[in-house]
Specification:
alpha/beta, Rossmann fold, UDP-N-acetylmuramoyl-L-alanine:D-glutamate ligase, 2 domains, seven-stranded parallel sheet, 21 helices, 14% strand, elongated, binds ligand NAX, binds potassium ion, metal ion binding, ADP-dependent NAD(P)H-hydrate dehydratase activity, YjeF_N_dom
Amino acid sequence: MKVVSGEEMKNIDKMAIDKYKIPGVVLMENAGLKVVEEICKSLEKYRNKVITIICGAGNNGGDGFVVARHLKNMGIPINLYLLGNPANIKGDAKINYDIISKLNIEIGLLTTINILKKFSEHVNRSSIIIDAIFGTGLSRPVDGYIKQVIDIINTSNNEVISIDIPSGISADDGSVCGGAIKASKTVVFHLPKYGNIYYPGKDYCGNVLIKDIGIPKEVEEQFGLKGNLITPKYIKNKLKKRNGDTHKGTYGKGYIIAGSVGMTGAAMLTCKGALRSGIGILRLAISQRLNSILESSLTEVITVPLSETKTGTFSIADIEKIIKTMEDSNVVGIGPGCGKSREIEDLIRNILERTSIPIVIDADGLNALARRKEILSEIKSPCVMTPHMGEMARLTDLDIEYIKKNKIQVISEFAKKVNCVVVLKDARTMVVNPQGQVFINTTGNPGMASAGSGDVLTGIITGLIGQGLSTFEAAVCGVYIHGKAGDFAAQKLSEYSLNASDIVNEIGSVFKELLL
Ligand SMILES: NC(=O)C1=CN([C@@H]2O[C@H](COP(=O)(O)OP(=O)(O)OC[C@H]3O[C@@H](n4cnc5c(N)ncnc54)[C@H](O)[C@@H]3O)[C@@H](O)[C@H]2O)[C@@H](O)CC1
Ligand SMILES: [K+]
C-alpha cells in the first residue's frame, strides 16, 4: 500500500476531480459518510448520544459539516462549532456550510474567548468529539486560541474521532505542530499519510482506519509515488514454500564476520538470526580467543578461527584466510560487535575491493565506512547497509535532527550515491533502494530498542539473501519479520522484559504465520 504526503494527496484529489471529473463535493460526501459509519459503531456503547463536532474553515471542516448533516438526519443530538472565519470557507466546504446554514442547526463560532466556557461544557457533556479542524492543509504551528480549544478536547477524556489526521499533526512527517488532538481513532481517506504512520503522529491517531472515498486506483498510479507500507501480502509473495526435492545447498551458504572480545553475543545473535531465517549453511569468522565459546553455543555453525589484535578484534593479518573461506558463500554479513579499529577498516576495505558477493554491512562495519568514506565508492557487491540514526549521521556527515526532518530525501540520496539498499533503523524502520523506492515498516515495538536487536536483523537479512531474495527484497522482508518477531515476544513477555534473544526465539512463529 502506498503512503503519501499532504501535497501528494492533494494532487491525487485534484486529478480525481479535474481529470476524472469526480465532483469534489462527491468525494467530500463519501468522506463524511465513512466517518458517520465509524461514529455509529462507537455510539452503540454510549447511553448519552450527544456528539460535538468542531470544524475548521478548510475542506477538513467541510467533511465535518457533512458529518453534522447526516447525524442530524439520523436524529442524533449534535453541537456544531466552527473554529475559523465563515468568510474564509470556500469551494466544496462552502457548499456544505451553506446546506448546514439552511438547516435548523446552531453553529457556535469559536472565535471569541467568551464562548470557550460553553464549548467546554458541551465537550464534557458529549459522548464523542469529532475533530474536523485541520487535515492535510495544516500550514503552520497551531497557537493561542486554537491551542486552547485543542487542550479542552484533549483534557475531556471523551472518545475523539479525528477526520483524516489529528488536527495539529503534520501529514508529512508526523510531528506535532504546536499542539495536536489526541484521537481515539482516525478515519483516513484513500491512503495513509506519513503523519498517520510516523511517530509521534501515529500515537496521536489512536486506531487508524483507512477508508475508500471513491478515488479510482489508477489516479494514484499516475504519480510514481515513492512511499510504500510493508504489508504481510508483500512478504508472503516473496517467501516461497519449500520444494521437497532440496538439500542444504539449496538454501544458501552464508558467511558472518562479527564479534570481538566483550562482544561475543553480537556474533551469536547475528548467526542465530540467519539460522532461524532458514539459511542452509553458515560460517562464522571469529577471533581465535572466542572460537571455543562460539563453537559450543552455536551448534549449527561452522567457525573459522582467526588471528586477532591485542584487544581481541579481527586482525588484518588473516585477510587471505577470510577471502579464501568466504569464496564459495553467496552472502556475507559483516560488522556486528567487530569493534572500532584501524584493522577493521582495512579488513572491510579489502573485502569490499576483492569480492562481489552480496553483503550486509552493519554496526562497526558502518562505523568503519564512516571513518573511511572513500571506501563507499568501491563497493562492487550488491549491498545492504543497516544504519541506525547515529550511524546514518556519521555516514552522511549530517546531524540527526536534519535527518529526522528529511528522512526520505536523505536516505534516498545516500542509497543512490553509494548504489546500495539502505535500511534506516528507527521507530519506523525504512528500506530504500538506489532507485528511490521507499518501504516503511510498521511491525515492531519499543521493547526492541535494546542491545543485540540490530544484530538479529543483520542475521535475518543475511539469511534471506542467502536463500535467493534480492538485497532489497531481503531487507524489506527482514525488517518486517524482525519487527513481527519482536511483537510476538512482547505479547508473551512485555516490552520491558523483551531481549534480543527473545526476538530470535519468535522468528519461527512469524514464518509459520506467513507461510500458512
Ligand atoms: N476534494 C478534496 O480535496 C478533498 C479533501 N478532503 C479533506 O480536505 C482536507 C484538506 O483540506 P484543505 O486543503 O482545505 O486543508 P485543511 O482543511 O486541512 O486546512 C486548511 C485551512 O486551515 C487553515 N490553517 C492551516 N494551518 C493553520 C493553523 N496552524 N492555524 C490556523 N489556521 C490554519 C488554512 O488557512 C485553511 O483555511 C483533507 O485532510 C480531507 O479531510 C476530503 O473531503 C476528500 C476530498
Ligand atoms: K482533523
